[in-house]
Write a structure and sequence with these properties.
Elements (H helix, E strand, L loop, with lengths): L2 E4 L8 E5 L10 H7 L4 E5 L3 E3 L2 E3 L3 E3 L2 E2 L1 H22 L6 E6 L1 H12 L6 E5 L17 E7 L7 H13 L3 E7 L7 H15 L5
Parallel strand pairs: 2-3, 2-8, 8-9, 9-10, 10-11
Antiparallel strand pairs: 1-3, 4-5, 6-7
Bound molecules: D-malate (MLT).
Length: 206
């Protein structure tokens, strides 16, 4: 997959896996990663699917209607890519935190739904429920931050709560940061994610 890797100042910190929204690229979330922890290593990946020239991580049949077969295939492809990238770039495969926005948050949620050890944690900005009617793996203790908008027309508040409940039922520990905005990624939700990360991963109180 098209990607970049920046080795961080502190290799004991998690590696951030950056997953862009529809029409984005592997570098879009780099400033966001820097706001959350500028000493972490960063793996930025571009989605392999093109929707009228816009990169995505999996196909959709319509807005909010996912091509489930492709989602499953692409989730496996991304998980295997992270395995290979860890060997190639020398980062700890067991210490990867996804930072995803919109379509990127959806594939990150799909990694959590399908694989027990794909992610050590996830920061999901405006995710949806990637799939229904399936059992999740054991996610005991996996920390997940969800950034959500009370007026998000794509990822509605009910769906945000449903996603949080499904992840919690599988054992994940979920925090939701609500904003009174829509689908856009706001500065203040990134600050909330940064405070969450500092508290959980660095033992800091922000
Ligand atoms: C998706 O297709 O993943 C969601 O609808 C979000 C988006 O618009 O990309």
């Amino acid at each position: 997959m098209k990607h970049f890797f920046h080795k961080g100042k502190d290799i004991n910190q998690p590696t951030f896996l950056l997953l862009h929204g529809t029409g984005g690229t592997e570098t879009d979330l780099l400033p966001v990663a820097g706001m959350i922890d500028d000493s972490a290593s960063v793996l930025g990946v571009r989605g392999n699917v093109s929707e009228n020239g816009m990169p995505r991580f999996f196909r959709r049949l319509a807005e909010g209607v996912f091509d489930e077969e492709d989602l499953i295939f692409r989730t496996r492809e991304l998980n295997e890519f992270i395995d290979q990238a860890a060997v190639c770039h020398g980062f700890d495969r067991d210490n990867v935190i996804a930072i995803g926005y919109s379509n990127g948050a959806n594939i990150a949620a799909s990694l959590l739904f399908h694989y027990e050890h794909a992610l050590g944690g996830a920061i999901l900005f405006h995710p949806m429920v990637p799939r229904r009617g399936m059992d999740l793996p054991n996610l005991t203790g996996t920390p997940v931050f969800i950034g959500a908008g009370t007026n998000d027309p794509i990822c509605k508040p009910e769906e945000t709560k449903e996603l949080a409940e499904r992840l919690e039922r599988a054992g994940a520990s979920v925090d939701i940061g609500w904003e009174n905005f829509g689908h856009q990624l706001t500065h203040s939700e990134v600050q909330k994610a940064a405070a969450w990360y500092a508290r959980l991963f660095k033992g800091e109180l922000k």
